[in-house]
Amino acid sequence: MNERKRWLPSLAASATILVATTSVASSADKSAYSLGSPTPDRLLRELSTDRPDTTESPFTVDAGRFQIESNLFAYVRSRPDSEGAVTDSYRFATTNIRIGVTSAAEINVVLRPHEVVHTRPLAPAEAFRNAGVGGLDIRAKFNVWGNDSFDKPGATALALLPFVTLPTDRSNGVSPEHALGGLIVPYAIKLTDKFGLGLNAGVVYLKDSAAAGYHAEYLSSASLSYEWSEKFGTYYEVAGLFGREDPLGDIVILGTGFTYKLSKNMQFDAGVNVGVTRAADRVNPFLGISTRF
Question: What is the pTM of this model?
Answer without folding.
Answer: 0.87
